[in-house]
Amino acid sequence: MMKFLFGTFSSLFLLVSIAVIYYWRDIQFNPSAMDLWLYFIIIPVVLSLILLAPYFIYLAYHAYQKRKAQQQKSQSDQHKSEDDSSETQLNTEDMQWLHLNIFSSFTFHAWGENETIIDELKKFRSPELDHRLTNGYGLPVLSYRISALDEMLLQQQDEPEIEEKQERLQRINALIEYQLEQHTEILVEVAEHLKRSAFFYDHELAYQYRLHPAWMDLREQAGEEEEQYDQVEQVPRLNRLNIHILFADNLIHVWNESASNAILLNFAESLGIVSQQVHIEHHFLSQERGYQDWLNLLQHISTQSQEISLILNINSEIDQEFLDEKIWLSEQYLAAEFSSSWCIAAQPVQINAIQPQKILNIARNVVDLSMCLTQVIPDHAQLVQQEQPFVLILDDALDIQVIKKNNQLFAPTFIETHHFLFTQQCMGHTQQLAKIFGFMLGMHLPEELTAMIYSNAQASTHAFFQVADEANPFKQQAN
Question: CA nearest 415: which of 447, 359, 453?
Answer without folding.
Answer: 453
